[in-house]
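1st attempt posting a full record on here, be nice pls
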Amino acid sequence: MLVSMNSKRLWDLAKGYAKANNKYILVIDNVKWFTLSNTKKATVKTYYDGAGTGSIPQDEVGEIFNTNDDHYTFYEFDGQGVAVDTATDWFPKTTDIAANANIDDDYFIHCFVITPAGGVPYTNKIPPKVT
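the predicted structure (as tokens):
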């Protein structure tokens, strides 16, 4: 007989942390970056690096694009506004990636914000329009 061990998903853990600490959590899912070739990894990392023309502060680039196979990065904020602003400043939406001829889907890094109530007021993954 199989007995459930009350398994948890990433979503459950982040939601529980947000609720327990009354924080807004920015979840950065960088799994795809780890599947890229080393050359492409360097190109994508340079695109985001705030030391150049990128949008992420240089100190945070090392956290998000580390080489320890840490596919997810979490930031906690006291307010929804600053969490969403950080997400929008650092990571383009899927629609922005598609509209930019200089980059491809490999540059997309999924992120979303979780509220203390468990809601998601922001995600940069925009579903394609149905025509």
